[in-house]
Each structure stands twice: as structure tokens, then as C-alpha cells.
């Protein structure tokens, strides 16, 4: 949390970064809409929301990359299938990649 932000601002930043609406965020945090709109005019608050969003995106990318070996094994299994439709789908997926 930024040293210049209070706990409610941090909660609001986290909530917004997770895709909640402004109205829902204000309700979750227990503040008025006008307070949240005022915070959204502050550079430090907006920077924190962006930082949190970037962190979440980076975590999602790490998760996807960690699943690649498993996905590759399943694709290999599909290529070895006796069902030609499954083989064709695997070939299509590989060629599109």
C-alpha cells in the first residue's frame, strides 16, 4: 500500500482493479460516490489501481505459462487418438499456433 493512501483508498483501488464498478466499489468500501470520484482524480490513487491491474495481469500470464506443459501433453495425446476428428482438431490447433 502506498504510504500516502489510507486503508479505504487501498481497498477501493484493489476493488476497482478487480473490475468492480465505481458504484459497487463505493458500497463495498463504505464511502460515498463523490469521495470515490474525488480519489479517482488523484494521480497516486490512479497509479495504484494501474499497478494492481498490472500485477494481476502478470500473475495471469504466469499461470497460463505454467499450464503450457500440461496443455502440450494433452495435445500430444490428441494427436495419438484413433479418432480422426480429434487428430484433425489437434493438427488445426498446432497449425494455428
Overview of the molecule:
The protein has helices spanning 7-17, 22-29, 33-39, 43-79, 84-96. With 97 residues, it is mainly α. Helix 1 (7-17) packs parallel to helix 4 (43-79) and helix 4 (43-79) crosses helix 5 (84-96).
Q: Round the Cα radius of gyration to an integer and report it.
A: 22 Å
Helix count, per DSSP?
5
Structural class: mainly alpha
Note the beta-strand portion. Answer: under 5%
What is the share of helical residues?
A: over 70%
Number of strands: 0
Low-confidence stretches: none
Characterize the overall form. elongated
Report the sheet with the most strands, covering strand number, pairing sense and barrel closure: none
Averaged pLDDT: 93
> What is the chain-wise order of helices and strands?
HHHHH
Query: Kindly, what is the distance between the CA atoms of the first and last residues, rounded to a whole number of angstroms?
Result: 40 Å
Short descriptors:
97 residues, mainly alpha, 5 helices, 0% strand, elongated
Question: How would you summarize the topology of this molecule?
Answer:
Blueprint: H1 7-17, H2 22-29, H3 33-39, H4 43-79, H5 84-96
Q: In brief, what are we looking at here?
A:
With 97 residues, the protein is mostly helical.
Amino acid at each position: 500500500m502506498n504510504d500516502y493512501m489510507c486503508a479505504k483508498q487501498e481497498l477501493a483501488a484493489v476493488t476497482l482493479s478487480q473490475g468492480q464498478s465505481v458504484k459497487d466499489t463505493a458500497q463495498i468500501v463504505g464511502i460515498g460516490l463523490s469521495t470515490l470520484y474525488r480519489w479517482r482524480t488523484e494521480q497516486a490513487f490512479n497509479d495504484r489501481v494501474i499497478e494492481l491491474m498490472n500485477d494481476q495481469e502478470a500473475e495471469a500470464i504466469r499461470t497460463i505459462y505454467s499450464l503450457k506443459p500440461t496443455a502440450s501433453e494433452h495435445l500430444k495425446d490428441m494427436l495419438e487418438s484413433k479418432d480422426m476428428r480429434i487428430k484433425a482438431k489437434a493438427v488445426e490447433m498446432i497449425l494455428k499456433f
